[in-house]
Automatic annotation (TrEMBL):
<dbReference type="Pfam" id="PF03029">
    <property type="entry name" value="ATP_bind_1"/>
</dbReference>
<keyword id="KW-0547">Nucleotide-binding</keyword>
<dbReference type="InterPro" id="IPR052705">
    <property type="entry name" value="Gliding_Motility_GTPase"/>
</dbReference>
<keyword id="KW-0378">Hydrolase</keyword>
<dbReference type="InterPro" id="IPR004130">
    <property type="entry name" value="Gpn"/>
</dbReference>
<keyword id="KW-0342">GTP-binding</keyword>
<dbReference type="InterPro" id="IPR027417">
    <property type="entry name" value="P-loop_NTPase"/>
</dbReference>
<protein>
    <submittedName>
        <fullName>Conserved hypothetical ATP binding protein</fullName>
    </submittedName>
</protein>
<dbReference type="GO" id="GO:0005525">
    <property type="term" value="F:GTP binding"/>
</dbReference>
<comment type="similarity">
    <text>Belongs to the GPN-loop GTPase family.</text>
</comment>
<dbReference type="GO" id="GO:0016787">
    <property type="term" value="F:hydrolase activity"/>
</dbReference>
Length: 176
């Protein structure tokens, strides 16, 4: 059995913790804190990841995925650094209905690219929500200029097991 370390990163509230929870076969380790009032106003939720999420999924007879979710907030980016080093692959989740987070997603991508060159895919979340921006427009905002440089981009609903497993399979096929 081979352990494969997958990191789920992305913008605040994109669905990283939800993704890990949906994927995992074990009780997930979640290190979250209540967000302050000002943060609630901007993110419409009451908890945020401050360290990491951890879950496990046995993908097939040969592969066990160790899945780590990062914090979204930049003040915890020391954890991005710790988690991405040693990753075999990662997923960047981008909240498709939040246009003002796209430049932040671009910064996260640059942060990860500076540290590792491993397979990755981009997962667009909240595409079921009103105000979701079309994929081609998001790609432009992420600074991906041509098809050659474009990683796989898929719509992901972190609440749905099928969707999460599909995304993981697309990624794992790039690792092997
Ligand atoms: N409708 C819808 N809701 C989603 C989707 N993805 C995530 N959510 C919801 O978005 C909220 C935030 O999800 P989290 O998993 O906490 O987000 P996070 O990326 O871990 O957030 P931080 O740790 O604060 O960066 C939860 O209520 C999820 O159920 C999606 O694709 N569609
Ligand atoms: Mg989280």
């Amino acid at each position: 059995m081979k352990n494969i370390r997958i990191v789920i990163t992305g913008t605040v509230g994109a669905g990283k913790s939800t993704f890990v929870r949906t994927a995992s076969e074990i009780d997930v380790v979640e290190i979250e804190r209540k967000v302050s009032n000002s943060e609630i106003e901007s993110s419409f939720k009451d908890k945020t990841t401050v360290a990491f999420d951890f879950g496990k999924l046995v993908l097939d007879a040969n592969k066990i995925l160790h899945i780590y979710g990062t914090p979204g907030q930049t003040r915890f980016d020391f954890m991005w650094d710790i988690l991405i080093k040693g990753a075999d692959a990662y997923i960047l989740l981008v909240k498709a209905n939040q246009a003002d987070s796209f430049s932040y997603a671009k910064d996260i991508l640059a942060f990860m690219n500076d540290r590792v060159q491993v397979p990755m895919v981009i997962g667009l979340t909240h595409t079921d929500c009103s105000g979701a921006i079309p994929t081609e427009e998001i790609v432009k905002h992420l600074g991906i200029l041509n098809a050659k440089d474009c990683p796989a981009i898929l719509k992901v609903n972190p609440r749905l097991k099928n969707s999460v497993v599909t995304a993981l399979n697309v990624l794992i096929n790039k690792v092997i």
